[in-house]
Records
---
Amino acid sequence: MDRGALRRYERGAEPRRSAAHASYVLSAQGVARRSREENRLLQAMASAGTGIWEWDTATDRLHLSEALAFMFFGVAQDLADVPLQTVMEAVDESDRARLQETLRTALEQHTEYEIECRLAGADGAEQRWFVARGCPEYDAQGRPCRVLGTATDITQRMQAQIRLKASEERLRTLVESTTQMLWMADPAGGLTEVSAAFKRIAGLDPERALASNWIELVRPDFRERTLASWRQALATGVTYDAEFPVRVADGSYRFFRAQAAALRNPGGRIREWVGTLTDIDAQKRAEDALQASEQKLESILDSMTEVVWSLSASTGRLTYLGPAVEELTGVAAAELMRNPGLWGRLVHPADRAIADPRLEKLRTAGALDVEYRIVRPDGEERWVQSRGKAIYDGAGRLVRMDGIVKDITRRKAQEQRLVRLNRVHAVLSGINALIVRAGSREQLFQEACRIAVEQGGFRLAWIGVVIGDEVRPVAVRGEDHGYVDENIRISLSGRDPRGNGPAADALRALRTRVCNDIAADAQMRPWRDAALRRGLRSVAVFPLVVHDALAGSIGLYAGETGFFDEDELRLLSELAGDIAFAMESLAHRQELEYLAYYDSLTGLANRRMFAERLNRLMPAARENGDGAAAVLVDLAHFKTVNDTLGMAAGDELLKMVARRLVRLAGGRHNVARLGSDRFAVAVPGVRSQADLAPLLRERPWNMLNRPYRLRGQSLHVPARAGIALFPQDAADADTLIQNAEAALKKAKASGERYLLYAQEMSAGLKQKLHAETRLRRAVDEQEFVLHYQPRVDLRDGAICGVEALLRWRCPQRGLVAPGDFIGDLEETGLIVEAGRWVLQRAAADYRRWVAQGLPAPRIAVNVSAVQLRQPDFVECLRGIACEPGAAAAGLELEVTESMLMQDIERKIVQLREVREMGIPVAIDDFGTGYSSLSYLSRLPISTIKVDRSFVETLTTSPDTMGIVSTIISLAHSMSLRVVAEGVETNEQLKFLRLLRCDEMQGYLFSKPLPEAQLAEMLRQGARP
């Protein structure tokens, strides 16, 4: 091969392979004649996959043995005079340059060479490997003349190496990806190799794991047992399997499971141990959590009062039974589990037909809910509720049945008690209706017994009345069959031995006699058999008492024992009282008519009788030219007496007043009680005010106003009086009484002891009544509107709030200012409804401004004293503030200084609740009342509004300026903001800024505006 050809070869200039290549090879000259020994050698080498080649470097041509010709070109004959380039093209392209470089280096360095290469092969053909070895020869000048070498087919070996490498790679990938860590140990137990997973999974460096004493990585409390089990495996050669916590890279311990098997040599001796280390920490934690959960569940089940049970579907036997079963049944759980049929024998015989089929139903229907009785070994009966559910596996097969048994004895008793109570209520209701319509005592008694039996379910009822020394039954209904005639004899004196039983003893003492078990009551022995034959199991006899004396009795018999408990007896005692009342009512119907005209407490005439007496008095007075007067008297502080001393004390006071009025009027004929604490006196022969002097002169009137001695206390209860004269003030009794009431109202309002009626009083009352009617309509028809006056921050001139001011859009008068109707709203109580509307309207307007994207200011709403006195004021406000979309921050309450000082402690509590809702509170008209600084510091307020009266004289009065300055300083020291009201001039504004006032409100900036105009002002961002 000349140097030019070699250089071309090194540059990779490969000649194009022609289509005549195959023919060129076939037509190449044959190889030189070889000796027979050489041929045998070549054949041996060919059988081993080895061929010989010779490269003439001068001609760049090669001679290939038959083996090589077949290897490179698939030709089974020697090939001589083959171009080197042709052979190179048969080598795989990726190995070609490496082969060329190897040949070049061998020629230059006079060295032998050896290289492994691949043949190119045809498309889809299996790739083959060969190893080429050779040695160059040189001429006398040291130039290479030829290269001799061999090429051996190593395809099988290389494929085996590739497969081995792939297998090793797969094994390495498998080992590294597994969640287990692999390790190997020598026969003595020393670690010889660990997988890289030690670092990936446990954070342990494999080299460190090998170098360290592995037992030191085990948690100290596990080391001894872990090492002992490993030593036992080493000594016996058995498979090793242990679990223990190992310290990992972060210093914590995690649970691992170590497993290992011994590998033995052909002689049976252990040559090494191969094992795995698996992270089971999560599993152990789950097992620990499960164990804790099971222990907790077991503790819960053991502490339950209900009996929890579980029944195997395959065996039909209990697999679990809660310990509470012993308390319920009196039989131990273990005994019931050993004896499956024992539970069925505990069921009450009368309930087995109910209970047993339901238990079987659980298998078919999948659910159980049944109530029945059981009988404990001690004979006690208990009601139980058994509930269960069928549990199925994934294939729909019944696995078990779980459920609970609950003791419902108390509930059943309550249900039975409710049934009894309903029966008693039915009797009570029916007899109360009877009392209204009964026309005679006989009808009352007969119907009452019928109702007791038919509606109350009593087996027997009778009513007796007192006749002489006896209580004789006069009405009977139910399972009598002669029982009452034969057995009911009650002697009140006890002289008749036959009527001297337990019922007689009770009736003499006006007590109820109850027997809840006739069969077991020794005192009922004389009547026991007769009662039990008629199904009578319990009885109660109630006295009928009229005017604290026995008037009769009622006997009620039930068909079950234990019927009469405390509640039934209370209702039946009420029933007996109603019957006694009816007896009294029927006997005194004339007295009832009397009560229609007289006051039952004082015995005085009532309003109806008083009016009739005035009407009878007036004609004679008119005919004789005499007049008459109606004097109405009202007691001050009477409600306080009732509230502090009780209703009974109040009644006693009214009786004392009645007695004094009777003495004052000279008799009870012309004295009446018109209402709770209102009395009236009719005075005949009065023509003028002068004629009233005998009644109203100082001494008699002082008698009415003297202190009263009540419950050991001396009470001063002032009296006020209103007087109307006939015929000057009225022509009929009703009008005269009304006019006297008008005078009384005026006297109470003015503090006068008594006042005579004047015509203008009536006109004023009518006008107020008319105003109240119009205001009521205004509230109902929502004729009110809100105007808003802005509040301005004096630092930057921005609108920082508005005050909601109520206006009345009256259909007749137009827009009415608040000064013309607020007082009437408060006096009539309509301010409560109107105030609620104002809060709702203000909250709604605030939400509208926010929805429109306006800078919505806080809305201050004035609250009246009447509103604050309402018990539900705070809850009403909470409902408004918590409406969907409402923002509590959009509202502010304004209360006056004088209002706060009334019941201050209650106001503090109320306003704190308001502040907790996010609604601030301001004191309005500050400076006009008499606030206490100690209370002021406790009030949950955020703002003080200086009254406009101070602002009006701010620029002209040094005293006023000093007061305002003091108020502002005081407020700022308490972290309160100050608002000046009624600012109308620039001079006032200037002084307020000098005094560091926070905000101002007044006509200088804006008058009160309708909602739409204020919204536009907010939109424009108006500033002063």
---
Amino acid sequence: MRDIRKSEIIEFQFQGRVLHWLKEIIAEKKLPFDVDQEVPIRTDGKLLRADLVIYGDKNRTKTECIIELKRPEYNGYSLELTDNAMRKANFLGSPFFATWNINEFVLWETFEEGTPLLDRRRWHKDVVAIKRIEEVKRRGIEEKLKKFLREFLTKDFVEICYVKKEVPTLPLDLIFIDRLKSAVNSFYIRISEDLQEEYQKSEDFKQRLNDWFREQKWVFEGKEEDFDRVARLSVLLLIAKILFYNFLKLRASDFELPPINIPTEDANRFKTILYEYFERCFGYADLFKREFIDDLPFPDDVGVIRQLKGFIKEMELYDFSKIGYEVLGSIFENLIPDDERHRFGQHFTRSDVVDLITGFCVKRGDERVLDPACGAGTFLTRAYMRKKMKKSGKRHDEILSELKGVDIAEFGCYLTRMNLAIKDIFGGFRSNVENTDFFDLIPIENEKFDAVVTNPPYTRQEELEETFASSAYKTKLGKIAKEGGGIEIGKRMSIYGYFFFHVIKFLNEKGKVGFITSNSWLDVDYGKYLQEFFMKSFKIVAIIESKVERWFEYADVNTCIIILEKCSGKGESRRKKNLVKFVQLNKPLKDFIDMKNESERWKSINKLIRSIKSKKKYFEDERIRIYPIEQWKLWEEGFDEDTGKYKGSKWGKYLRAPEIFFRILERGKDLLVPLEEVADVRRGFTTGANEFFYLTEEEIKRWGIEKEFWMHKGENGNWVPNYVIKSPRECKSIVVDPEDLKYRVLMIHKDKEELKGTNMLKYIEWGEERGFHERPTCKSRKRWYDLDEREYANLLFPERFWDRFVIFNNNIRIMENKNLYGILCDDEVSKPINMLFNSSFGVLLFEIFGRSSLGQGILDIDVWMAASLPVFKPSLFISTQTPLLIDNLSQRENGSVFEELGAKTFEEVALDR
């Protein structure tokens, strides 16, 4: 364990550094403030000291704010700390005080008599994320701290104190979440340190911890973050139990539960007494049971115990039943660390999205419903209410018996159990939530489900393999896909795809599936596996996207809702005739839902679902766009008759393309062919070591590299440099000008024996000294320095677009790297294709066939997407006028889409414009 005394010294030193930074900022910005540290305050015969004081004038006649500065393991919201800070502020007449544990800065109002403490909170700022005060010496942390202080003094503090700007009052829900987050972030630090110490000295504890990690299917490498993860989970579960105990105390008077009052400050005795309180909650043993994670060593630190006692006292002020499932879900998302949430792809699903999915899938009151990735339990909670509203007459415990949740996160499972338990605390509680990996579950034949609804994790397969550190995991997922869908899956399939393959085993015939997933499967190559599986095993009821909002605020991903109905075996004719509805919402989902009460809410959901299902032809108004298409047409579109296999197609166009696009396709069906029928489309080369292969002519001359390795002979026999385009931004017009290109690429096709005596060999040996030959891409080649001979492409097609859409004419034989694709075709074909792609219709094609990357507006077009782009048959364009038109078009400089259209906003260049 680190030296606490040393930490206290560093805390005092850090206080002095903050004072120095504040003085620097005040002088630099000529602010009317002054600051001091360790300001003495005499009260009740005692001498107190304020860590830092901000004065409103240079003469120090008016105190504006005091700052109580603590180490990261101190909770900035603890009653002891805030009461102490407020007392000092009162004596100094300061209207504001702040508590700052370096990570979180909280500004409070002092003079609000009779106002609860949390209602006095004016401002919260997450500053940094460190565990030990020693980390403030790190350069990156110091820069963040100084930046925060500069913004606080020059903007936020001035606006709050002088401009009297009204700080928006945060809802209690958000304050509550910040309060819990602060508690978790402070308590877990000491627990983690103690765990590491116990792990080093106790073989028994080491074995138990390793066993527990294996049970969770987590990787344990003995790293600090492993101990942090366990410590954080133990704190999360302890806090959840305290919250639920207080809820029962408030809402179940028959239980006669007393307030938690633990007089001892001994760590072990404290925990023993706390669980004695929990044991009074008869009938809820599942929510208070003690497992390994609950019996981790508790910090033997009086300061930590006092903070925890203060936290327990404060939690008594909350009526947990009024917080509700939305906030529980937000708690789940906000309290799980960002890196872990990303690794597992865990994001809270809004209740309006959940209700739409549930409305499609739960039609009666007696369905058995499964959520295989239940998170905080929002899907099951809303399914409970849906079943209740169907007036099934079933008791609370009977409804619970028809709901099953599964989640790999223990904290999520606990919140799900709580969410369901509070629906009727006297109705009997039956926990049907399993903390396990869904892929380990085996379906029971007579216990299948009528509906499976979920928001599965979106993590890529390779990230999950890293998390579980099991080479067998990939094999297991592949086996699941083979068993569930009879399909061999490609390597790039995201984890959510495998949920579909496993879910079908748990589903009754005609059972419904409702998922919200990343929408990438609609347009990427691996999406073909899901498309094929859906069309062979389900009636695809609806695929729904929003045009105007992202359904996950914190997830960097675009999403869609998928509604399916199991239709396997002899249901082929019904599947073929099924009318798939591609739905784009032109208004926020909440605009469709009446939020007055549960009854009106479900009525409006039902109305929206009926509207979607009733449309037999294309429909669009200001609120919604629906494109119906027979399922057999989707199959034919993606089926390759030559290979007899389903190769996939882009379904995203049915959600986003304007109606005129489909009219063009229909009228031109005999005039259009895929690009791959008239040209070969290849990826540009990946060097694996750009700094070795790409050189400027100055660098080439400095090395004295012989011309045969960086030049080639042109058609007239003259030597021409091996020009290479690294980025499309290097080119200003359709025809590439070599003068715009900075780099030349080395093309070395000889063995080292043949290179003896050349400067080229010396350069290769220099590259090997730097380890370029050991890089994976280079190492995979027969000669690591040989990029292989390749034919020059006629056209160069960028892999991604932002605001400029240009396909380049490569008549001067330039090499393309991995940021571009090469299009190889006959010369007389290349010009009309280039003219088409550089037209407005070409831009329309790219927008429809491309994929918006990670919700950031960049348009990605994979090589297979480019190959599938429809082009007019070249024979239609071959005329005496075509070359002249193309030459004229090629001479002009190309601007962004905004410049080309004379537009200023994104709305002006939208597809439907």
